[in-house]
User: Fold these one by one.
Assistant:
Number 1:
Amino acid sequence: MTITIHTHGLDLTDGIHEHVHRRLRYALGRFSDKLTRIVVRLSDENGPRGGVDKRCLVTVGVPGQPDVVVKASKSDLFVAVDRAANGAGRSLVKRLKRLRGHR
């Protein structure tokens, strides 16, 4: 499972990098053989002004299907990553259940 991380408006520290990988491996690891790619985009929308502006957008590629895209915005980047990873896991479970039902 390859995870690509892009940032905009913030630095990708070792702590953030490890947190993103750990949370996504936990949320999506059981589906790793079914995924083509995982792209994470982290951004700070308001810069130094603060507020609920840390955004995490997770895009998960599933072969033969539209991408699963989940985003979360919070004032804390780590919480935004947690929410987006959990949402991606839930969305992927729903998508795969629907696929099994149509076969």
Note: DSSP finds two helices and four strands in the chain.
Number 2:
Amino acid sequence: MSESTTRLGANGRIVLPAAYRKALGLAQGDELVLTLEDDALRIMSLNAAIRRAQAIVRQYIPEGTRLSDELLADRRVEAAHE
């Protein structure tokens, strides 16, 4: 199931084959993220895109670190100096 063909329909619509939708866990109405990379269109579920972004960030931020806590601490220090 690595390759399939489909036709571009009215208003630029495409139909994803049922096997692809099932493999990705997609259902009608799910939000998708489209990325144009070189000459290819990548389609991901919103959840998959979020997991991908989290994995990228996790390469630079150690496990257990909460950036929101660090931001709040920085803001409190700045506010104390005002």
Note: Residues 67-80 form the longest helix (14 residues).
